[in-house]
Design brief:
By secondary structure, this protein is of the alpha/beta class. It is built from ten helices and 19 strands. Helix 1 packs parallel to helix 10. The two termini are 16 Å apart. Bound molecules: flavin-adenine dinucleotide (FAD).
């Protein structure tokens, strides 16, 4: 079968890889210049930030096999220090760290880059509508026996409307996230953690990841690299705020944690994620009825993590060619 896939994030890449392994043809359409979607690495000078997914926890056999066995593991390292929690920037142990977490020295975008090897991906190609034909579907004048749609649920819903279709996923809501990348010309003091999390999302800064502690080689000699992810409420209220003001806010919190050497970053960048992670989910079986050749694979269906995206991509690929 020839299957069209919209989106080259982890879901779309997992679906395409699975289809190829099962002997089918997959063509992936990706609107950006690179594969990876919300697994996104930004570099400036010797600073390296993971502004989307900050680490990968191989929970479940499917992703464990691909991450640790099938793909090249060069530069893949286990994150050594745990996650701590913070309440109003008061830091303490207490996060149930669970499965080990992995990251790539060069940045987590290595994962989609390695997954994408050998796949037929049309980059810089936005799919704005889909047509139905007598035998299947058409995307940008190419015919397919079936389609898998992988953008976040609100974007997938718009694509379905272009076909006059809908699926029961109106309950799926994503939170926005302002991700603020900071680089400093000072080394961080020793810490027992690589990241801190405000589990209640009360503080404006939910997550602070010490990128240069998480994985070595992410900062220049004598420097440090951090990424602050702001709470859903803060991100919603200040989404359009200018970068300078946002950087100042995040820097203020870093200075309170680590002292006056962290008053002013030498480099910074703000990334705005309109749909960062889902807060509610749709039922896989209701969204993807048996026998349908138009399937939805999104982290809004199984869970809001890389491993869930990989799992749902694989599952839809197997379903569309009726393997299970
Ligand atoms: C700030 C942040 C922090 C996170 N932290 C973690 C973490 O620590 N651990 C973890 O496991 N997960 C984390 N996640 C979640 C994780 O990144 C996602 O669950 C996962 O990457 C989703 O993959 P996906 O393929 O479902 O979607 P996406 O990555 O969003 O991929 C969808 C792709 O579709 C493309 N696309 C959209 N519309 C179109 C169109 N019309 N035509 C063509 N292409 C289109 C997009 O460009 C994108 O590449 C985080 C996410 C964010 C944003």
């Amino acid at each position: 079968m020839r299957i069209g896939i919209v989106g080259a994030g982890i879901c779309g890449l997992a679906a395409a890889r699975t289809l190829n392994q099962l002997g089918h043809q997959a063509v992936v359409f990706e609107k950006s210049r690179a594969a990876g979607g919300r697994v996104w690495t930004y570099r400036k000078g010797e600073h390296v930030w993971d502004s989307g997914a900050t680490s990968i926890a191989p929970r479940g056999k499917t992703i464990e096999n691909v991450l640790l066995k099938e793909l090249c593991t060069e530069g893949l390292v286990a994150v050594q220090k745990p996650i701590y929690v913070h309440t109003g920037l008061r830091v303490s142990p207490g996060h149930p760290n669970g499965a080990p977490r992995y990251t790539y020295l060069k940045g987590n975008a290595e994962f989609p880059k390695r997954l994408a090897e050998g796949l037929d991906i049309r980059l810089d190609t936005s799919v704005d509508s889909i047509e139905r034909t007598s035998s299947g579907y058409k995307i940008l004048d190419e015919e397919f026996d079936g389609l898998i749609l992988t953008p976040p649920v609100p974007q997938t819903t718009l694509l379905l409307w272009s076909l006059g279709e809908s699926r029961p996923m109106a309950n799926v809501k994503y939170r926005p996230c302002l991700s603020i990348m900071l680089g400093f010309g000072a080394e961080l003091p020793p810490t027992n953690y690589h990241a801190i999390l405000d589990t209640d999302q009360v503080h404006p800064m939910t997550w602070l990841c010490l990128e240069s502690v998480k994985s070595p080689e992410r900062a220049p000699e004598g420097g440090s690299t951090l990424v602050a992810q702001m709470s859903a409420a803060f991100s919603h209220n200040y989404y359009e705020r200018d970068d300078e003001a946002l950087v100042k806010t995040a820097t203020g919190y870093v200075e309170r944690l680590f002292g006056p050497k962290f008053q002013a970053p030498t480099v910074s960048k703000v990334k705005r994620w309109k749909y960062s992670q889902p807060e509610s989910f749709a039922s896989y079986e209701h969204v993807n009825p048996k026998g349908s050749r138009l399937l939805i694979a999104s982290d809004g269906i199984l869970g809001g993590h890389v491993e869930d995206a990989y799992e749902v991509g694989t599952r839809t690929a197997r379903q569309i060619v009726e393997v299970d």
